[in-house]
Amino acid sequence: MTIQPPIAMLAELTHRCPLSCPYCSNPVELARKDSELDTATWADLFRQAADLGVLQLHLSGGEPVTRRDLVDLVVAAREAGLYTNLITSGIGLTEKRLHDLDAAGLDHIQLSLQGTDAEMADRIGGYRGGFARKMDVARWIGEIGFPLTLNAVLHRQNLHQLPRAIEMAVEMGARRIEVATVQFHGWALLSRDALMPTREQAREADAIVAEARARLKGTLVIDYVPADYHSDYPKKCMGGWGSTGLNVAPDGLVLPCHAAQTIPGLVFDRVQDKPLRAIWYEGSAFNAYRGTDWMPEPCASCERKNVDFGGCRCQAMALVGDAAATDPTCIRSPHHAALQARADAFAAGDAAFTARAAAG
Amino acid sequence: MIGADDIPVIPRGVRMQFDRVRERWVLLAPERTVALDEIGVAILSEIDGQRSFGQITEGLAAKYAAPPEEIAADSRGFLGALIDRRFLEVRQ
Question: According to its UniProt record, in which pathway does this protein act (chain B) (predicted)?
């Protein structure tokens, strides 16, 4: 198997965040502030990434704007030749800081949306006043002219707001909206009963997205992550393990995906110890599920094995206790029927959720 | 569909860049990368925010000694796909 160079790197600059969304993609074990990589280490990593073939850099977190050196990091990323994207809730961004990021060469902003009104957004984000501040930030982004993607994470409690979220994206002048049904890893798994959409909601969202895509063609691009527990085939997780992207945690741990630390037995390298090139090509965690040779049946003989790569390894681990198993959201998994029944039970569960903890 | 008088414009946040690792040109857009072939590079290189689609395709037809209608049809398909993805805009 020829290993291709990575195209994208997600730099989790920090796990600190003013919000406490119950579906946070950070690991349940959060990295502390005093373990975070410093400016020079990130800048060196950006150069290594560009040399390795990375073209797209996502500056994420936690909330990346809590890093005081964010503008310097954007300068370093652009100097390395990377397309530089900021993934933010907007909380903590001022108009002045946005102008500084503009001058530094920031290419694009992805703004998260927890709800379409203050009541919902501030309850899900756990931060009073957050929605109003986000709306200010969206306006400044538009005035400066940054290309904008709105990222709406949807679950049982806010799926009814999907039509309004799409309208808001158009009103803000966003070119794209990501309609992402919550994925159940880490924090979200702790609140699965509260967040699992119903089957009816999942089908309604499918219809709303299909209608809006046709109506808004050429105005707004809609990327859609459907509710996989209610689907027939799994998501093409990471575009295939170790094939296109990598994540770097705040403390320098290099991960094949957000949730890879939930797979026992995988050993991860740190950027402080090895060159990024060696980690990508030779790291044992990256090679664990690369390609298709690791696949058991029914994946091994499936004609879709190069379409969805057996789905999500972390989800297989979480749901059936075996990271090499077929993702049970796949109709060909022996666990699929049981999972769909469980999904309906989760969707009938209690609405109280567990807020994400604060990073130390 | 892009017309002869429309002026194609590469918007902020979209740029062509040479991918020195894979040794090819790419179009970088928000969270997306499009690998470009020679024809794609030739068309996008002509877009300057001033000239119309008709002027661009006539220029390309002369440069490559190809039938103008063929160049226009190919370019229209290529640029139309970019417009649909919001990687390209047009001014009337």
Answer: Cofactor biosynthesis; pyrroloquinoline quinone biosynthesis
Count Cβ atoms below 10 Å from residue A271 Cβ, excluding itself.
Answer: 21
Please, which residues bridge with residue B34 across strands? Answer: B27
Q: Tokens 């809609």 appear where?
A: A222
Question: In CATH, which superfamily holds the domain spanning B7-86?
Answer: Coenzyme PQQ synthesis protein D (PqqD) (1.10.10.1150)
pTM summary value: 0.96
Which residues 23-42 in chain B show a CB within 8 A of chain A?
26, 28, 30-33
- Cis ω for the linkage preceding A298 (within 30 of 0): yes
Residue with tokens 């790197």: A9
DSSP A262-331: GSTT----BTTTS-HHHHHHH-HHHHHT-SSTT--TTTTT-TTHHHHTTS-HHHHHHHHS-TTSPPTTST
Q: What ipTM, to 2 d.p.?
A: 0.95
Cβ–Cβ gap B12/A218 under 8 Å: no
What is the enclosing helix (H) or strand (E) of B35? Answer: strand B32-35
The structural domains of chain B, with segments of one domain joined by +, span 7-86
Q: Strand pairing partners for A225?
A: A180
Residue A342: other Cβ atoms inside 10 A: 16
Domains of chain A with bracketed CATH:
1-359 (3.20.20.70)
Per-residue pLDDT of chain B (92 residues; tens, 9 = 90+): 899 999 999 999 999 999 999 999 999 999 999 999 999 999 999 999 999 999 999 999 999 998 989 999 999 999 999 999 999 999 98
Low pLDDT (below 50) residues in chain A: none
Of A51, A52, A221, the CB nearest to B86: A221
Cβ–Cβ under 8 Å, residues B53 and B75: yes
